[in-house]
Specification:
44% of the residues lie in helices and 15% in strands. By secondary structure, the chain is an alpha/beta fold. Strands 3-2-1-4-5-7-6 form a seven-stranded mixed β-sheet.
Length: 239
């Protein structure tokens, strides 16, 4: 990456890192790098925005290219999601970053927004509901992408539902291929996969099983055991 782009990412991350969320710096850089590859005036779709941690990274990258970012999140009420309170924080963070003219909020379920979508998508970032059915539907947004376009999926090879969706819809796909990951953020691209692409997915399965065992131990309140057996640190699931 050019030095100017690296400096820009560091500046953006200094702001994004103040927003609560589960995106690591390495994952933020992967999002940034993928967006930097796009042509002029790109359209980026983000599914699942929370308070805007990833939105600030993608939004700043898109603004530099003269494009726009459509952030899709229904902001469901409830203890786990925050509802209107989370939406207000998201909007405040976008405004404070000066991204009002770049980021368009679509406060809707991704599964309801997809059938009415018009136009192409240059980059798709999926971090929505982590069940198999939602992830399966979210992957269908890629039908609006052209060959080589990046698709990034958070909590891949970490969440049971997300990984199951990838195994069913990507491992045997003829139009999606797996490239790499940073933690649980996986990078896919639109394109016919090779045998090596498929084997890279299979090669991640031991790490997936490890993460499922860590989650089980955390649910059983055996954090020390998760640390001793798997080197997991902290109270949160692997991400």
């Amino acid at each position: 990456m050019p030095d100017a782009a690296r400096t820009s990412f560091d500046t953006v991350w200094a702001t994004a890192d103040t927003v609560p969320g589960w995106l690591t710096q390495g994952q933020g850089r992967l999002l940034w790098d993928a967006a930097q590859e796009l042509g002029p005036q790109p359209v980026v779709v983000e599914i699942g925005s929370h308070q805007g941690r990833s939105t600030l990274v993608l939004g700043e990258a898109v603004r530099g290219l003269g494009g726009r970012l459509v952030a899709i999140d229904p902001f469901v009420e409830g203890r786990l999601f925050g509802g209107q309170s989370t939406r207000s924080k998201f909007e405040d963070n976008v405004r404070a970053a000066g991204l009002d003219d770049t980021v368009e909020l679509l406060a809707e379920y991704s599964t309801k927004a997809r059938p009415t979508w018009q136009g192409t998508i240059d980059l798709l970032y999926i971090d929505g509901k982590h069940d198999y059915w939602t992830l399966s539907d979210d992957l269908r947004w890629s039908r609006h992408q052209s060959a080589g376009s990046p698709i990034l999926v958070h909590d891949c090879f970490s969440s049971f539902g997300v990984t199951l969706g990838v195994l069913v819809h990507v491992l045997f796909s003829r139009r999606l291929r797996y490239e790499s990951r940073e933690g649980s953020l996986a990078l896919f691209r639109v394109g016919r996969p090779s045998a090596a692409d498929r084997m890279r997915i299979v090669g991640e399965l031991p790490w997936w099983v490890r993460n499922l065992l860590v989650k089980l131990l955390l649910r059983l309140r055996l954090r020390s055991v998760a640390g001793a057996l798997f080197g997991h640190r902290g109270p949160y699931d692997p991400y």
